[in-house]
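Suppose you are handed only these lines of text.
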Amino acid sequence: MVQSTGNKKVKCAVFISGTGSNLKSLIKFSKKKNSPISIELIISDNSKANGLKFGKIFKISNHVFNYKNKISAEKKIIYEIKKNKIKIICLAGFMKILSKDFIKSFKGKILNIHPSLLPKYKGLNTHERAISNNEKYSGCTVHFVNSKLDSGKIILQKKVRIIKGDTAKSLAKRVLTHEHKLYPKAISKIVSL
Ligand code: GAR
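From them, the structure of the protein bound to glycinamide ribonucleotide can be written out as follows.
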């Protein structure tokens, strides 16, 4: 549980690599009157990430770091996080793996959303694999990040039925609409004003 001090909203950073639809839903959530969070920082490893436009639209500070040199990128990210007094990091379609040291220094403060019913289908191409294994359900999971890929403690999960004729694309699109509701719910579960 992350508690705010003096009834102020808990400051969050959101890390993205692409479209940023989860970022957009988190920004909308943060703008609600009773939301426990404010989004102060958007971090990306990709200067072409479409989601960066939400930084401009909502006037949230954006930073792009080149992950070719992970150690140097993470050093700069830590500097921004400390400067902005960030208490929670939300990974939202961030496709780089954070170093063990980075994760250790923000233990219990990094959340991720993953498009599967973890512990099933860690890693990439989750929907393709669920469909080809004839699963009845796919879904999404919000979990704490630990040093093993997609393996930290689960906060919330939503099952989404796989329907006949689903492709990875149609399923991903449907699951994404549930991700947009699940992430704010999971944050509300672990952050209190
Ligand atoms: C989402 O489906 C998210 O769960 C997934 O990437 C997509 C990002 O979409 N994350 C992962 O696969 C992480 N392993 P968005 O950029 O529109 O939020």
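What can we learn from it? The longest strand covers residues 37-44. The mean pLDDT is 96.
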